[in-house]
Specification:
Oligomer: homodimer
Protein name (chains A, B): NUDIX hydrolase
Pfam families (chains A, B): NUDIX, WHD_NrtR
Structural class of chain A: alpha+beta
Shape of chain A: elongated
Keywords (chains A, B): Hydrolase
InterPro entries (chains A, B): NUDIX_hydrolase-like_dom_sf (IPR015797), NUDIX_hydrolase_dom (IPR000086), WH-like_DNA-bd_sf (IPR036388), WH_DNA-bd_sf (IPR036390), WHD_NrtR (IPR054105)
Number of domains of chain A: 2
CATH topology of the largest domain in chain A: Nucleoside Triphosphate Pyrophosphohydrolase
GO molecular function, one term (chains A, B): hydrolase activity
CATH architecture of the largest domain in chain A: Alpha-Beta Complex
Largest sheet of chain A: 7 strands, mixed
DNA sequence: TTAGGATATTGTATAAATTACACTAAAGAT
DNA sequence: ATCTTTAGTGTAATTTATACAATATCCTAA
């Protein structure tokens, strides 16, 4: 059989965005409530079809912007899901993207009536999602757990200024295990990627902790030189 | 602007397979010489369009089988390439797959006249490839270098029975750096994933080395229990 | 038969990294 | 003033990583 004798088939092609945030001690994910069938009223990852004249990465940014109001968000490709029956209305292949953002730094403001609203939900307890979005989320969560062990991506999820305890709590939540405080601090500080600020926490009813910020310049330099940062 | 007002656009959708092998001390990749335009006579990754009634993983296996004669090859998804201009004849989004096989265990035997022939080429010195396949290969090679550091995938590329020196040479070729022999053996054997056979190399003009085989059962058990195998 | 060439095999001492573990300090609340 | 809560800090023991070289075995060729 010769391949070219077969009919040329077409699929719809979409992107879905898994956007993680961290707030009030919990890992969160950005979801929209669907306003239309299929899966009307279900929670879903922000996603939509890719135009023929845009690259996939661009499409991911455009779709996220339209559905949530988030702009200029760094996203990396996660995985492509293309099971024949993943969409009830026909073949739709979707490329999932993965992103980490500072919740407080962005406001949610969807342009599209397609989504009722975009909101943060705790990853820990979620109702069932539309389509195969549960599966996509699981893949993204595993990627996050894996990635945080060798790249200092935790800083993406925290405010510009943060305490070491906040950073540790983030790691504990993502990795789902307790971490020794002294060893964690020793290790994290040994990377030399934190700048200690002349500033302390405010409005806490206990000893205020020092604030730190992430040294992005130094990180980029070290990364270029092939350093890695295993926790 | 409402998304649903826009015309529904269609793209072609393909898979491409990056199949690595190891032979005569070199890392090799399976390529076909294209028999048709575009990129007639160029070397290319085995790849073709996905049918609407098959999952992407299935498509990768079918396409590889048709173009090279290789069947039942384990493949994992690598990355999706979808730049608007990656294909000169229109928008084609492609999912790249990644595979490691034992060269000697398979014979190449393409069914399709689409490819002149499928052959192994040394990764070290390659002429330019068709489309963006150079870029795909680079991504795959990086994935291989990364993966071999924490998963014992080297065994996939060697014959059933192999010597520790062969294994070390494979690691050195892939990682592009020399490795200390004693430390390498210590480390590899400490995983407990090798079975020492009562057998030695034959037909070598020097001291014959012991042969080992990979303990796949034990590997699967340990993997299930969450062990990792960092080199 | 023997000497030489090639690769296989093995251990140890040192340095570095990881782990386990508990008390004092600071700040606000009562 | 004292209580509560979280911040901040060091060391000893263990494990892991690294650097390094001599002997063993087998084949080849003189």
């Amino acid at each position: 059989m010769e391949l070219n004798d077969l009919p040329k088939l077409h699929s719809d092609f979409s992107v879905d965005c898994v956007v993680f945030g961290f707030d009030k001690g919990e890992l969160r994910i950005l979801l929209i409530e669907r306003a239309e069938e299929p899966f009307k009223d279900f929670l879903a990852l922000p996603g939509n079809l890719v135009y023929d004249n845009e690259n996939i990465d661009q499409a991911a940014n455009r779709v996220l912007s339209e559905l949530t109001g988030l702009n200029d968000v760094y996203m990396e490709q996660l995985y492509t899901f293309g099971d024949v029956n993943r969409h009830p209305q026909g073949r739709v292949i979707t490329v999932a993207y993965f992103s980490l953002i500072k919740v407080k730094k962005h406001t949610l403001n969807p342009l599209s009536a397609y989504a009722k609203k975009a909101q943060w939900f705790s990853v820990a307890d979620l109702q069932p999602l539309a389509f195969d979005h549960q599966q996509i989320l699981e893949k993204a969560y595993k990627r996050l757990q894996n990635k945080i062990r060798y790249q200092p991506i935790g800083f993406e999820l925290l405010p510009e200024k943060f305490t070491l305890s906040q950073l540790q709590q983030l790691y504990e939540v993502i990795l789902e295990k307790p971490i020794d405080k002294r060893n964690f601090r020793k290790k994290i500080l040994s990377f030399g990627l934190l700048i200690e600020l002349d500033e302390k926490q405010k409005n806490v009813s206990h000893r205020a902790a020092k604030l730190y910020k992430f040294n992005k310049t130094r990180y980029n330099n070290l990364k270029k030189m092939g350093f890695s940062f295993e926790l």
